[in-house]
Amino acid sequence: MRLTSAVTFVSDLDRSVAFYCDLLGLTCSILDESAALLVGPENYELYLRGKHAQPSRVLGSVGIQYLIWSAGSLEEFERCEEALRRESVHVRRERLDDFEVVEGRDPDHLPVMVVFPGPDESVRHAIIPRIYSW
After folding, report:
1. Which of 83, 69, 99 is nearest to 91 (CA)?
2. Is 127 a domain residue?
3. Which of 44, 40, 36, 29 lies closest to 12, judged by CA?
4. Domain total for the chain?
5. In angstroms, rounded to a whole number, what is the distance separating the alpha carbons of residues 104 and 89?
6. 114 and 69 co-located in one domain
7. Domain assignment present for 58
8. Residue span of the structural domain in which 11 resides
9. Structure confidence at residue 94 as a pLDDT band (50, 70, 90)
10. How big is the chain by its Cα radius of gyration, in Å?
């Protein structure tokens, strides 16, 4: 079993399509006036749905807080870090056990995390400390 799709509501569809295609190396396979389907190299999907900006849900409330993406190589991880730094002033990178994690914000200021190596290559021995900071 694996997660194949995620859905994110965004305030500016075109800006978010450009950001996520750049950050995650996705291809926009369908785009209409209110939604886009982005597809990754291993056929995972990210749906973006354009909505008017609304008050944010508070971090720590019930529901998904983060999607954590795995980079396939150190070069890809560093490219993701650069993409996050272009979009967000507040980007944090740290080493945990034997993997790296970088956290930034998307165009709607939602948190985005990327790790390298992924859990297939590096077994996790502890919970990422950021999970406890809400």
Report:
1. 83
2. yes
3. 36
4. 2
5. 8
6. yes
7. no
8. 1-53
9. very high
10. 15
10 Å Cβ neighbour count for 35? 16
The chain-wide mean pLDDT, for the chain, equals: 86
Mark whether 126 and 71 lie in a shared domain: yes
- Find, among 95, 96, 97, 91, the residue nearest to 23 by Cα: 91
Q: Identify whether residues 37 and 82 lie together within a single domain.
A: no
Contact call for residues 130 and 59 (beta carbons, < 8 A): no
CATH number of the domain bearing residue 4: 3.30.720.120
Tell me the pairing of strands 5-10 and 35-39.
Answer: unpaired
Average the pLDDT over 95-105 and give the result. Answer: 90
pLDDT(75) > 70? yes
**Amino acid at site 15:** R
Tell me, yes or no, whether 72 and 132 share the same domain. Answer: yes
DSSP 3-state assignment of 133? coil
- 52, pLDDT greater than 80: no
The single-letter DSSP state of residue 45 is: E
> What is this structure's pTM?
0.83
Q: What is the residue whose two structure tokens read 């995972």? A: 44
44 and 68 together in one domain: no
- Of 20-24, 62-66, 74-78, 93-97, the one with minimum mean pLDDT is 62-66
